[in-house]
Amino acid sequence: MRFRNVVATLALLLGVPLAAQAQPIQGLYIGAGAGYNLPENVGVKTKAPVSPRAELVTQGGVVGLGSIGYGLGNGFRFELEGDYRQIGVNHITSQPNTTSGSLNTYGVMANVLFDMDIGVPWLYPYIGGGAGYTWTNMNLNIFSPASPPFPAASAHNSGTQGSFGYQAIAGLSFPLPSLPGLSLTAEYRFMGTAGDRTFNSTNSFSPVPTTYTIHPQYNHSFLFGVRYAFNVVPPAPAAAVVQAVPAQAPARSYLVFFDWDKATLTDRARQIIKDAADNSTKVQYTRIEVNGYTDTSGTPQYNQGLSVRRAKAVQAELVRDGVPPNAITIQGFGDTHLLVSTGPGVREPQNRRVEIVIR
């Protein structure tokens, strides 16, 4: 039942990205994470007469994983993961006993994930799922006091057994602008194992070894981690704001450049804008056009808004420099009309600009 519920939830979540644009991650990446693993209690059965059926009461512990993957550039990522979960056992139900030990798991998973661009450059949600093989290492010591007609008994159960494993993943990544390619991550993972696993059991009431079988395990893991993509191009140093060669009369044009994802003016940008304002008093003109543009990183909707904010910043500076507000018209063109032709997702400094045209 748990597996069907997880699959249904994952299928519902996979419908979400259809309305969102994918984060353009492409190429090789590596990741790692660590946190807290919260296991569910595990059903057991044994041939021992003191406890034919019972349940192991578990306690949480650390979880850690490492992964290597490849992004297709359209939001989908494929990765191979190795993981380890610490699961303590502090009691067994159905009769008085003292229990200590662990049911630690480790395994290998193949995952498919989808990154979503929600228009916020510092936050990318992602969901996914995986399947693979998981080993459980059992090391349990159980002591049951005398309970007439049964005498006191002790048992030791140990061994390592494997089974099919699966997981559902939901997370958030936070790119670090100052360290291109590096992102912080926060994740929730549901991991389950399939089928029963049987371990060796030795006890004090019988010279003949018996068996100790556990049912499927279910874990809820909460992790924080890092991910590094190797092919992310570092942003170019802040481009110097250079006055363009004036266009032939009667139009004169000036270019003002911006830092990545910024609409604020540098000192050099203000000087260029002041030159344009001063020169507008020396020529006849009918209007002053202020046109904003962006590079191709980010979504078209986000880029359109950013280009308008850049144009408004230049307009406000022109007014401060004495240009009549009614003489200025502004437009935002987003990531169209590129000064330097690039593909999608490229941070090209010369495309992050505002053009002032005096007509």
Give a verbal description of the structure.
With 359 residues, this protein is mainly beta. The chain is built from three helices and 18 strands. It folds into two domains: 2-229, Porin, CATH 2.40.160; 252-358, OmpA-like domain (60s Ribosomal Protein L30, Chain: A). The longest helix is centred in the C-terminal third of the chain and has 21 residues, at 300-320. It is rod-shaped, with a radius of gyration of 31 Å. The N and C termini lie far apart (71 Å).
Strand-helix topology:
Layout: H1 2-14, E1 21-22, E2 26-39, E3 42-46, E4 53-59, E5 61-72, E6 76-85, E7 88-92, E8 98-117, E9 124-144, E10 153-175, E11 182-193, E12 197-203, E13 210-214, E14 218-229, E15 252-257, H2 267-280, E16 288-292, H3 300-320, E17 328-332, E18 353-358
